[in-house]
Amino acid sequence: MIIEGQAAIVTGGASGLGEATARELARLGAKVAVLDVNLEMAQSVAKDIGGIACQCDITNTDSVVAALAKATAAHGPARILMNIAGIGSAKRIVQKDGSPAPLEDFARVVNVNLIGSYNVSRFFAAECAKLAPMADGERGVMMFTASVAAFDGQVGQQAYSASKGGLVGMTLPMARDLAQHAIRVCTVAPGLFSTPLMRQLPEAVQQSLAASIPFPPRLGKPEEFAQLACHIVTNNHLNGEVIRLDGALRMAPR
């Protein structure tokens, strides 16, 4: 798919990997809707790239429907969906006081990362399937954002790893399901990236994490994630695939 001129939706587009992807799509000529729970930050990014900001809680169906409707009214039907919104968590199953980990925390992470991503995708796919095929026969493409934690989850990452593993497991069956509608589905599993959340850690910790990456021995750049996300859009034979983007990193148990 040629990105130029296409309407694109980026969840979690107000910061980090989502912001970088929104900016790269806009640079390549897409009409970008920046969806995020933080409307002020989404508006700032949208203003910079000539896009539109839509406040959206991906776990809330009414919020998703309203955000997608706003994006469609501004840019027309979207053919590109980048599912990047997500949250993290780290809790031991048995807490220091001997109590079990709170179920609410596990459910919250799975609800946002897995169910929320599916929630946006089902509405996008239903509308995209109604569009006329393009010259190459394709109607649309969507990407999920997993993590290397889906494969190498560390101590305390049960909820996060389960949510990201769910996205990995959903990729192929969703690609097979949507093949009849000519909509491609891929997932990127990033490793350690220099995001706002990562930059909140002490510098020494960031350097230690970077040193654990075989090559290049540094944190990933959000722009590198964005470049891969956009390549998935432009490479029509990429479908049903999960791509690790991690510098050959394999996470240690802790």
UniProtKB/TrEMBL annotation:
On whether Cytoplasm is a keyword of this UniProt record, the answer is: no
What domain of life does the UniProt record list for this protein's source? Bacteria
Q: Which Gene3D superfamilies match?
A: NAD(P)-binding Rossmann-like Domain (3.40.50.720)
Residue ranges crossing the lipid bilayer per the database entry: none
- InterPro entries per record: NAD(P)-bd_dom_sf (IPR036291), Sc_DH/Rdtase_CS (IPR020904), SDR_fam (IPR002347)
Show the GO MF annotations.
oxidoreductase activity
Ordered alphabetically, the record's keywords are:
Oxidoreductase
Family, per the entry?
Belongs to the short-chain dehydrogenases/reductases (SDR) family.
Protein's name in the database: SDR family NAD(P)-dependent oxidoreductase
Q: Which organism is it from?
A: Caenimonas koreensis DSM 17982
Question: What is the organism lineage in this UniProt record?
Answer: Bacteria, Pseudomonadati, Pseudomonadota, Betaproteobacteria, Burkholderiales
